[in-house]
Design goal:
Length: about 70
């Protein structure tokens, strides 16, 4: 089962802020325990960055110069 945004937020809160087991979370959310376990595995898997995210993590020297208020002499 794929959780919608609201359910995903609730499951994430329950996982992060309570001591509930997967079974207890599943019962509280009305889903199968396996779905909660699958969500935890998917959430903990490393994911590759999108092109936009990658571009933000590796700025060019020219862009950094621009951010610092550099002047190209014009």
């Amino acid at each position: 089962m794929i959780f919608n945004d609201g359910m995903e937020r609730k499951v994430r809160k329950l996982l992060d802020h309570t001591q509930l087991t997967d079974s207890e979370i599943a019962e509280a959310m009305g889903v199968h325990r396996q779905d909660v376990e699958r969500f935890k595995r998917r959430r903990n898997e490393p994911t590759s960055l999108s092109d936009e995210e990658l571009a933000c993590t590796q700025p060019t020297d020219g862009f950094l110069y621009y951010l610092r208020g550099g002047n190209d002499g014009i």
